[in-house]
Amino acid sequence: THDLPPGLEYLNQLDQIIIHQQVELLEAILGTETSSKYEIKNHLGQRVYFAVEENGCFDRKLCSPIRSFTIRIADNAGREVIRVIRPLRCNSCCFPCFLQELEVQSPPGTIAGYVVQNWDPFLPKFTIQNQSKEDVLKIIGPYATCGCFEDVDFEVKALNEMTTIGKISKYWSGFVNNVFTNTANFGIQVPVDLDVRIKAVMIGACFLIDLMFFENSLDGL
Questions:
Q1: Helix locations, the chain, DSSP H
Q2: For residues 43 and 37, what is the distance between their CA atoms, to the nearest angstrom?
């Protein structure tokens, strides 16, 4: 554990990570877009990290699903331990040379890995890469991401795309909650012995999937 980035020792024994978006009262009532805030918890519901998205009002209003952002993830002591950086890129399969790419740093300033969107005419596909840009895992989503009153699963697979080792799930949390707050609730399931840096990258992948497929949806309605 002495080789772990500071703050990532919390992830060392986790095989399930829950991400819950906190919705501000003003945003829920008036629909006013504010910077996203998240709690990152273990399977017992105990908060492990707190995340805040940083960007401008211009980005949120005009570039919402493809907006650039920096998400700063801090531990319970307030120490920033993970930084997720997403540049403004295309979100269309018509432009395969400029698809989504997200960088995850831990500690901030040190690359932990990347999430790279792969071109596919039918399915959402991503590659998880380590700090050296070597491919580690694949993420493959369903043909339709607007599940009807049910969870939506993005499978985490080995590089051969044959073996499933985990998943990122968008939890459907009820009609009233989704329609009036459009809150995000995700679960990440990965092997407990997965490199903690890659677990941190998986958290970044979860944020990317949320913005690409669920930011402006009614989540299954």
A1: 25-30, 57-62, 175-181, 196-213
A2: 19
Q: What is the CA radius of gyration of the chain?
A: 16
Token pair 């990347």 is found at 114
3-state secondary structure of 207: helix
Backbone angle region of 25, left / alpha / beta, with phi > 0 → left and psi within -120 to 50 → alpha? alpha
> What are the pLDDT digits (tens) for 173-184?
543 344 334 456
- Omega before 107 cis (within 30°)? yes
Alpha-helix runs per DSSP H in 31-161? 57-62
* CA–CA separation, 136 and 158 (whole Å): 8
Q: Residue 7 carries which DSSP code? A: T
Query: In whole angstroms, what is the distance from residue 165 CA to residue 156 CA?
Result: 6
CA dist 125 and 135 (Å) reads: 13
* Whole-number pLDDT of residue 221: 35
Q: Which amino acid is at 157?
A: K
The domain limits of the chain are: 9-217
pLDDT in tens, 102-126: 999 999 999 999 999 998 888 999 9
User: Could you give the C-alpha distances from 109 to 58, 84, 104, 216, in angstroms and in order?
Assistant: 26, 11, 9, 31
Contact 2, 187 (CB under 8 A): no
